[in-house]
Amino acid sequence: EVQLVESGGGLVQPGGSLRLSCAASGFRFSNQAMAWVRQARGKGLDWVSVISDSGGSTYYADSVKGRFTISRDNSKNTLYLQMNSLRAEDTAVYYCVKDAPRRSGWYYFDYWGQGTLVTVSS
Amino acid sequence: DIQMTQSPSSLSASVGDRVTITCRASQSISSYLNWYQQKPGKAPKLLIYAASSLQSGVPSRFSGSGSGTDFTLTISSLQPEDFATYYCQQNYSPPPLTFGGGTEVEIK
Prior knowledge:
The structure holds 2 protein chains of 2 kinds. Chain A is mostly beta strands. Chain A is built from no helices and 11 strands. Chain A has strands at about 5, 10, 20-25, 35-40, 45-50, 60, 70-75, 80-85, 90-100, 110, 115-120. In chain A, the strands form 2 sheets. In chain A, strands 2, 4, 5, 6, 9, 10 and 11 form a 7-stranded mixed beta sheet that branches. In chain A, strands 1-3-8-7 form a 4-stranded antiparallel beta sheet, with no helix packed on it. The N and C termini of chain A lie far apart (about 40 Å). Chain B is an all-beta fold. In chain B, about 0% of the residues lie in helices and about 50% in strands. The radius of gyration of chain B is 13 Å and the shape is globular. At the A-B interface, β5 and β10 of A face β4, β5 and β10 of B.
């Protein structure tokens, strides 16, 4: 059974930093791209970042580029999101998501974690 | 960037109704279109991928169709557990990955 368990969320002041982690199990982690998707309260889904299976390729939404860094440790089956220079508009539930097996096209997501809440407020 | 527009943003329907949700892309995305269901307080769940392929374990009352710029998600006979918000997402182009704004299906 695929499991994605996020941790590291919490309350942080504007300008602060936070590191999210996602522990993955139930699949061959090193063979799948992974991503983070966020959702502000009462709002829609907002893609944040994606990393290839090896970690060699990363992509970011313009809204977080230069502030957030996605990474992974395939030896620990863990995905990370380092968030710096946090803003009030970064407040959201952050979901760790697994890329689906694909023959073509780009990323879409067949498993989602339960999410971790990040609140940026003074 | 490819923009995804869903309509309606919300709808009210009764158990047993046939429900159709539309997603339109700002440019052609072939069949690279996916649908997710999200219930309140829960993570989204993949329903349909590649416009019309049913994800494993998803009831057959859900179906997807379309190609190019216009897509639909249909629930043939709405069940109580189907009241949720539905999102489309394109995976035609390299990131940024884009989702539609969502369609909330409410009980009439």
